[in-house]
Structure formats: structure tokens, C-alpha cells
Amino acid sequence: MDVDRHLEWLEREGTALGDAADGVDPDVPVGTVPDWSLRESLRHIGGIHRWAATMVREARTERWNTTLLDAVGGEWPGDDELVDWYRAGLAALVSAIGAAPSDLDGWAFLPAPSTRAFWARRQAHETAIHRADVQSCTGAVTRYDAAFAADGVDEVLFGFAQRRNDLPADPPVLRLEATDADRMWTARLGPELVDAATDAEAAVTPVADCTVRAPASDLYLLIWNRRRAAADQVSGDASVLDVWRGAVRVRWSE
After folding, report:
1. Bond preceding residue 172 cis, omega within 30 of 0
2. What sign does the dihedral 211-216-217-223 (CA atoms) show?
3. Mean pLDDT, to the nearest integer, of 225-241?
4. Closest by CA position to 154, among listed 201, 220, 252, 222
5. Proportion of the chain in helix, strand, coil states, percent, rounded to 5
6. Right CATH number for 164-247 from 3.40.50.1100, 3.30.1050.10, 3.40.190.10, 3.30.300.20?
7. DSSP-assigned letter for residue 202
8. Beta carbons within 10 angstroms of residue 24's beta carbon
9. Band (223; pLDDT cuts 50, 70, 90)
């Protein structure tokens, strides 16, 4: 993992998120997560940024359980200050990870070559997915860089999907093919975890029950349950995608 590259992506995606939220009514619903408003989305990602920055700055070695912003330090801003508050949290997070030593000893919840690398990658993708949420409040979601999107698919399949999930006893096989990144993945969805493979290994996996061929950006949003595949992108049993949506959870707790 290239920490500097992930920091660049974090800053770029985070800036795009703030720009998309600027001047928008905080009560507008989030198109990709209908139960949320823009206000809730900004509070969520702004709180996460402050939580993560504190984890890095203080080199915490255990999970810090908090759902209250005042535990991180501060109160929810008023609506007219919400975007600036979000931007300040983003800047503090980028600064904290950028200043952290390469041998930072701290808590992480997915495999990574270092704690610093974990936080740079995890927060880049956390922010990028919520950028899509915020953009969906007012219009179309812009595409992700293909290499970044492929890295995000890797993180889900070889990180989050390897943990406890509600998987079926008779596991179907899902194949993802990125048409613009020369990448391929297969995922056997169960029964205890997702058995994932990529590239050369994926190419020799037995025939998949469902294959999705699409740009990496579309696969990234699909695997994060932020979009559905277009009919012309899917071959085989499309109900396998419903298995994914219903069974695999992206969460930071076990």
C-alpha cells in the first residue's frame, strides 16, 4: 500500500465531498442511503474523521468505542457551519496521518502492512463512498479513478468480507471483471466467509454463477451496495447480487 497515494486520494475525495455539500439544504435525502439526510451524512463522516485522527495522533492501541461526538471533542455544528466543520475535520485527519511515523503502533481492524497504511487506505475509501452519498443528494455520482476503485474492491473482498457475515449455506460464486483496469475477482459467498481470489487466481476459478463486467468505478459502488448493476453488465444468475446485498456487511466491529 502506498500511504502517500492513499493520502492524495483521501484529500481529493474529501474535497469533492465538501464541494458537493456546499450550499445544499441539509434536509435533502441521500439518494444512495435513503434513511439518511445530507446533515446526517456530514455528521457521520465528520465525526469519523475526528475519531480516526484522534486514534492516529494518540497512537491508541485499543478500539475506542464512541458514538458521541463530544467524546471526540466538540458539539454538532449548526447547519450554516456544517460544511466548514466537515472540511476542518478532513484537514485534521490528513495532517494526522501525514505526520504519523511509518512505524506507528496502534489499533487497526483490517490487514495492512502498517497501522499508518491501514488508516490512510481505510479513510480514503470511507470518505470516497460517502462522497458518492453526498453527490447523490443533488445529482449524478462522478466516476472514481479506476486504480483507486479497484483498490476499494480489494479492501472489501479481502478485508470486510472475510469477517462474520450472514452468508448462505450453499455458496454461489460471483465474478467481477473491471473493463478499464485489467482486474478480475471471484467471491464464493459462504458459508462461513467470502472465499475471494483476484487476477490470475480468479481466472482459473470454476464457472461463476453470476458475472458482472463493468468499469471499476461501477464495481466499487456495487460492492459497497451504493448502486445496482445495469442489465447489460450482468450475465448468469442476477439473484447472486441480492445474496451479496443481504449477506455481507461493511462494519468496523467484528
Report:
1. no
2. positive
3. 95
4. 220
5. 50, 10, 40
6. 3.30.1050.10
7. H
8. 16
9. very high
